[in-house]
Specification:
single chain, alpha+beta, five-stranded mixed β-sheet, Cytochrome Bc1 Complex, Chain D, domain 2, eight-stranded antiparallel β-sheet, 3 domains
């Protein structure tokens, strides 16, 4: 199998607490405890600060993530107590440091063993089968290798500080059965009362002392000597730090205080099996009536101080809910904003909102533009007072929430219900994956460029888009500095306070990209062609530049004019007709269940 057929076949498979699942112990012992496994990252004897230069270090590490499976504990007699289908993901920068072993027999063990990586049944499985929150869910681990199929077992990314060019980023990915490794660690592990197993991972053993001309990326292919060397170093970089005598407790998840019962008919959200599983908020599961109410409110201009602007004014349904053609939206009183209005779809998979991620819940995000003095400039009390004068609308609120009263909280919940139902999943690209449509030769060429890295030393001359925009959501849901400026704005740093987040903004989905111009957080690029030119030869180096861009040469990717045209053609196949049509009228209460 070759060419586009191979890519489409692969595409059909796709889409701080670390996650662990399914320990499955089999042991005739009466006393059991839940045990934590905690990972610590360091550079030699010093804790590692992601995005910071370690003392005496030769690299700034921005990512050190890996998947672990088949953990086993060695008994005193030398036999092994093995897990069943247990997996964990550890992500250093994200603070995902712990996983859970359920029901461990209470005794003293003399060591542990685990695999970094996955055996074929799990590695080749459909990533979208896993429930939301599972370690192998692609949005949990961020390590599924997009359309190439399979998982990356370990991802190490950052910048070399001992290289002459500040652009010298590295992106080391280990994957495939050749790079899977088994780590065995000896030590006295007293789990008679439970506790948390501590392990350390020393990045200095992996990255320290590499030759100055060591390659900037690995691909885990046959003959990739750089990947082989790193694998051998990784195997030696783990160590045991002992057992902390504390009990693992599952987090308590509670509905917000005062949450009212939801009434009405359940809204059936139809989602393609090729998209990752999603958890809708348990305290605000959409109902038919709640979604209809949210859509009415989305179009209600009374949410603005002048009664002239609604949410739909800057998020138009016919432009994938972006502000069609505008770099900055104008507020209710004519003031221009400072950020390009983001499109609104597939929000059910997001965990943070706005370009800088400052809102953690969709219900909170929707109320911020209402209060923003540059946007709708309405107090929440003022909006509630105006809406409460509408007896018909008040009755709809009572029908959805089970009791009379319009409140700011209920306003946010209703808008959240509506926005959660905006799922984009039926573009020409999606149809082609299902063999219901056929890409043109130019679109096929664009897809090949999209999923191919740029590494001329291995005869790979792609556009290298998939690292940030792989999978069927076409976004890794993260934040990145994509080299727009040599001295970028604070961006994500303004929210987290971390220097390592300077210049980072949300990685947007490329779905419906042809509908959402202009582009970037500040709308600086008018056309897709300008965006492609930026990534081809316009990336500016800076301290937090994404390593997958920093590893490219200063001269750029050298894409030809036909390459750029093909890439643009492929991106246009991501348009979903349902997000490109004439906006539908706001529904009435009898809005039917799909």
């Amino acid at each position: 199998m070759s060419g586009i057929n191979r890519y489409l076949r692969l595409l059909a498979l796709l889409s701080g607490l670390a996650c662990g699942a399914g320990s499955g112990w089999a042991e005739g012992v009466k006393s059991f405890k839940n045990v934590g496994v905690e990972m610590h990252w360091g550079w030699g004897d010093e804790p590692l600060g992601f995005g910071q230069v370690p003392a005496g270090g030769a690299a700034v590490v921005t990512r050190a993530d890996f998947l672990v499976s088949k953990l086993a504990l060695r008994r005193g007699d030398g036999t092994w107590l093995e897990t069943g289908n247990w997996y964990a993901c550890f992500r250093g920068e994200e603070g995902m440091r712990r996983a859970l072993l359920e029901g461990v027999p209470c005794q003293i063990y003399t060591g542990l063993r685990f695999q970094v990586g996955l055996e074929d049944p799990a590695n080749k499985s459909d990533p979208n089968q896993w429930p939301a929150g599972h370690p192998l869910h692609p949005l949990v681990n961020g390590l599924h290798w997009g359309w190439q199929g399979g998982y990356i077992f370990m991802a190490l990314e950052g910048h070399r500080t001992d290289a002459p060019d500040p652009r010298d980023g590295f992106s080391y990915h280990l994957a495939g059965s050749r790079q899977m490794m088994t780590v065995t660690l000896d030590g006295n592990l007293d789990l008679t009362k439970g506790g948390t197993l501590g392990m350390a991972f020393d990045l200095k053993q992996v990255l320290g002392g590499l030759p100055a001309d060591f390659e900037s990326s690995t691909h885990s292919r046959e003959g990739d000597t750089g990947a082989d060397l790193l694998r051998a170093r990784v195997e030696q970089a783990f160590s045991l730090t002992g057992v902390v005598p504390e009990l693992w407790q599952d987090p308590v998840v509670a509905s917000p205080a005062g949450a009212a019962p939801r009434l009405g008919n359940p809204y059936v959200l139809h989602v393609s099996n090729r998209l990752p599983k999603v958890n809708l908020p348990p305290d605000n599961v959409p109902s038919v009536e709640g979604v209809a109410l949210g859509q009415v409110l989305f179009h209600d201009s009374r949410l603005s101080v002048t009664n002239t602007q609604s949410c739909a004014s800057c998020h138009q349904a016919g432009a994938a809910f972006s502000d069609a053609g505008k770099r900055f939206s104008l507020g209710a009183e004519g003031h221009p904003g400072t950020r390009n209005a983001m499109p609104l779809f597939n929000l059910a998979w997001q965990q943070e909102f706005f370009w800088d991620g400052r809102a953690k819940r969709l219900r909170d995000q929707v109320l911020m533009p209402v209060q923003d003095p540059v946007e709708m400039h309405q107090t929440l009390d003022g909006a509630v007072a105006k809406l409460s004068m509408d007896k018909a609308l008040a009755a709809r609120f009572a029908g959805v929430f089970g009791s009379p009263g319009i409140t700011a909280e209920r306003l946010g919940l209703a808008l959240e219900q509506y926005l959660l139902t905006l799922v984009s999943q039926d573009s020409k690209f999606d149809q082609a994956v299902l063999a219901l449509a056929k890409l043109t030769p130019e679109e096929q060429r664009g897809l090949e460029l999209f999923v191919t890295e740029y590494d001329p030393s291995r005869n790979l001359r792609g556009a290298d888009c998939f690292h940030c925009h792989g999978g069927n959501l076409f976004s890794n849901q993260g934040f990145a500095n994509n080299g727009l400026d040599a001295a970028p704005e604070a961006g994500r740093q303004a929210v987290t306070g971390l220097e390592a987040d300077h210049g980072k903004f949300r990685v947007p989905s490329l779905r419906n990209i042809a509908l959402t111009a202009p582009y970037m957080h500040d709308g600086r690029f008018v056309t897709l062609e300008q965006v492609i030119d930026h990534y081809d030869h316009g990336v500016h180096p800076s301290a937090t530049l994404d390593p997958n861009l920093a590893k490219h040469p200063a001269s750029g990717l050298s894409l030809t004019a036909p390459d750029k045209a093909a890439l643009s053609a492929f991106l246009k196949t991501l348009t979903d007709p349902q997000f490109a049509g004439t906006p539908a009228p706001a529904p009435v209460l009898s809005f039917s269940n799909p």
